[in-house]
Specification:
This protein has about 500 residues and is α/β, with parallel strands linked by helices. The chain is built from 18 helices and 19 strands. The strands form four sheets. A ten-stranded mixed β-sheet has the order 3-18-17-16-5-11-12-15-13-14, with helices on both faces. It has a five-stranded antiparallel β-sheet with strand order 9-8-7-6-10. A two-stranded antiparallel sheet has the order 1-2. GO terms for molecular function: 5'-nucleotidase activity; metal ion binding.
């Protein structure tokens, strides 16, 4: 109840009517009224119970998935079964940097540029025309404060001057393949974890050029770095295969999960872009020398996403002893044999595995998950390593308190923004400044430069939109599935639509 002189006002009165009562009976100024609203809201926020912790080992549903319908389990390898230590990022960065020096003859001083492991995050876009690394939300809006040229942040004013708008046209981001129009996208989406050290190298070199007043073409730099890092993958594969303990995180529960699936007569297959010797070294460390016994089909060098999109590329037998492929036509897929290349069409035709009976796990929303769910009706699971860090951050008391207050502060700004008296405008401007600070605080705890992989200040990121569209479930590690039975149904939570806020649904 709100006390006014000798009487009371019902607490259910609207804010507008409350203002009238306050002004009438106590001759409140706009400033006093708004300060009172702020104080009462702040007290309410402090008394509000904080949300429960999110389970860091949880499996989260974007779409309803009944595991009792799944007969076949498929897996990617990199960042799905094998989780890498930070040492792999450093290795890829150093190999790529050396290639820039040796093959492309970049300045010798480049050798002194060390990797900054916490600079970039997955899901960013690089504008190959303008040389900017930036973060987009699900509406293709730029997240101001998360735009970098090299290692230097670009101001909001300069960003608007460059793009003329905060929203980027879809053809600029994704390209335009409509009839009579073949415009290549100007932006590259960095959707896998291998791209993080690549972006670190790109931004380091760009910063060196800028600081030393060396002219460079952003697209040429991008292509040189991309080609340097990717051409080093065979070298990386050899080094990691010889030192698996240094680069791969152990996961004793992986074998338990495979055994659980086999005990319940599930079929298992592996489809990976990586070469056999690299996969074999990692799987022997993770599962044991008998790891192939768990899989009904193993396909290496699959060249995804072409594996999922092409129809005519033949599948071949890979001779692991001679380290080469065999030329005979493959008419059946046998356990214990290693296969090479091929297409998902052949995999389905030779096994009969198709539709919702197949659940495939990968870490890349496009090359692993998009085509199999859109074109073939497979169920999909995304393994997102960053969830461990993201959920740990979400569960901190400071983040919960700031997120709660940010929501409530935003609400009172929305409710009272139409006050036009000068003193009211001044108070609301102070609220807006506090809101901006809160938004920066809740962003920077995930990553100082770019914030959360999953969210801009308030909207889902471009990466999140694709993840939620193409993955039925997602989690941080395959082993988390051990916490659920093989007949478990994952149910998505009822999302609150904008028009439902404040209704009985919430």
């Amino acid at each position: 109840m709100y006390t006014l002189l000798n009487g009371t006002v019902n607490k259910n009165l609207s804010q507008h009517k409350l203002k009238l009562y306050f002004n009438l009976f106590r001759n409140y100024s706009s400033r006093e009224f708004l300060n009172d609203v702020y104080s009462r809201t702040k007290l309410k926020c402090k008394s509000k119970k904080l949300p429960q912790d999110v389970n860091p080992k949880g499996v989260f549903a974007c779409n309803e998935l009944d595991l009792s319908e799944v007969k076949v389990y498929g897996f990617d390898y990199d960042y799905t079964l094998a989780h890498y230590k930070p040492s792999l990022e450093h290795l890829l960065y150093n190999l790529g940097r050396n290639m820039l020096l040796e093959k492309y003859k970049y300045p010798a001083e480049i050798s002194k540029l060390e990797y900054k492991p916490h600079f970039a995050v997955r899901g960013l876009h690089y504008d190959i025309e303008k040389g900017l690394l930036l973060k987009l939300d699900s509406f293709l809006q730029i997240q101001f404060g998360a735009v970098y040229r090299g290692l230097t942040p670009v101001s909001t004013e300069e960003v608007l001057k460059i793009y003329k708008n905060r929203i980027i046209p879809i053809a600029y981001v994704e390209g335009d393949n409509r009839a009579h129009k073949e415009n290549r996208a100007k932006m590259v989406h960095l959707a896998d974890l291998f791209s993080v050290p690549e972006m670190g190298l790109l931004c380091n070199v760009a910063e060196y050029f800028i600081r030393n007043h060396i002219d460079y073409h952003p697209e040429i730099l991008f292509l040189d770095v991309k080609n340097s890092v990717q051409s080093c993958h065979p070298i990386m594969h050899k080094i990691v295969a010889q030192n698996v303990d240094e680069y791969i995180r152990p996961n004793s529960d992986l074998k338990k999960y495979f055994q659980l699936l086999r005990d319940h007569d599930k079929k298992l297959f592996l489809v990976t872009n990586s070469p056999y010797h690299f996969v074999n070294a990692g799987m022997e460390m993770l599962v044991g020398s008998d790891w192939r016994d768990y899989f009904d089909v193993v396909i290496v060098n699959a060249n995804k996403p072409k594996f999922f999109t092409e129809v005519s590329r033949p599948i071949r037998v890979f001779d692991k002893n001679a380290n080469t492929h065999i030329w005979e036509k493959v008419t059946s897929l046998e356990k214990g044999i290693i296969y090479y290349e091929g297409t998902v069409k052949q995999l389905q035709e030779l096994t009969g595995w198709c539709g919702h009976q197949v659940l495939y796990f990968g870490d890349h929303p496009y090359s692993d998950l998009a085509d199999v769910t859109l074109e073939h009706g497979w169920r999909t699971g995304a393994i997102i390593n960053e969830l461990t860090h993201e959920i740990k951050t979400l569960n901190t008391q400071t983040f919960k308190e700031n997120a709660n207050w940010l929501q409530m502060l935003t609400q009172i700004i929305e409710d009272h923004q139409d006050h036009k008296e000068p003193e009211a405008v001044e108070v609301i401007a102070q609220w807006m400044a506090e809101r901006d600070q809160l938004r920066n605080d809740t962003k920077s705890v995930f990553n100082k430069q770019f914030g959360s992989v999953f969210r801009t200040y308030h909207n889902p990121t471009y990466f999140s939109r694709r993840l939620f569209r193409f993955a039925d479930i997602y989690t941080s590690n395959i082993r988390n599935l051990l916490n659920y039975s093989l007949t478990h149904t994952f149910y998505p939570r009822r999302g609150v639509m904008p028009h439902e806020y404040g209704s009985y649904f919430v």
